[in-house]
Amino acid sequence: AQSVSQHNHHVILSEAASLELGCNYSYGGTVNLFWYVQYPGQHLQLLLKYFSGDPLVKGIKGFEAEFIKSKFSFNLRKPSVQWSDTAEYFCAVNPAGGYNKLIFGAGTRLAVHP
Amino acid sequence: GAVVSQHPSWVICKSGTSVKIECRSLDFQATTMFWYRQFPKQSLMLMATSNEGSKATYEQGVEKDKFLINHASLTLSTLTVTSAHPEDSSFYICCARGESNYGYTFGSGTRLTVV
Predict the structure, then answer these.
(1) Distance of CA B115 to CAs B13, B62, B67, B89, Å?
(2) Going by DSSP bridges, is the β-strand pair B10-13/B110-114 parallel, antiparallel, or unpaired?
(3) How does pLDDT run across B72-115, given as a tens digit for each residue?
(4) B115 vs B113: CA distance, rounded Å
(5) In 3D, which of B72, B84, B96 has the Cα closest to residue B20?
(6) In this complex, do A104 and B57 lie within 8 Å of one another by their Cβ atoms?
(7) DSSP string covering B43-92, please?
(8) Three-class secondary structure of residue A69 per DSSP
(9) How many CB atoms lie within 10 A of CB A8?
(10) Which among B42, B104, B107 has CB closest to A102?
């Protein structure tokens, strides 16, 4: 079945550690890719998005993601996390022709310890 | 930036009653509204997609007679949970898309508890 997979359900890091969260999708053809963050008690916020062009996308708060078409992946990275990055992170895919709907991965809960 | 106002933020209702959730786009025209449901510690599951002035398109397994969606204007969409049961308790989130380039704006969500 077509899906969006996030491999890490729960990640615990110390401040200044590097972060990489995996995201794979199984939709063929052209897709648009997104990473969202949900801080505790808050609504979803867009971190970054990829439509076309440079596969390395830079977003807000020092996050970046790389689209690797051959691997159907869109992994999120940050070289040095902060305590304030503690949140849940969702990868989302907009499959071409799918009425523009966003399909979400299961989410990764990140806890950063001081 | 684009803002979507979702109300109420939380609601408790008795089994068998109906609950209406509203989402308003405050500074843009929402041509498409998506309604999601999120169970605790789980992802957002798309329930339905509605375009202004058209009937909503429901995802497989979502009862259209139970979850009534209205998108009568470009700034307002509503989700009505009819004859609510405890298993309908969840976090419901709307997401609006305007005509701008691939912009999705999420509401703050509604926590529904059916007792």
Answers:
(1) 6, 21, 18, 9
(2) parallel
(3) 888 999 999 999 999 999 999 999 988 765 578 999 999 999 99
(4) 6
(5) B84
(6) no
(7) -EEEEEEEETTS--EEPTT--TTTEEEEEEETTEEEEEE-S--GGG-EEE
(8) helix
(9) 16
(10) B104
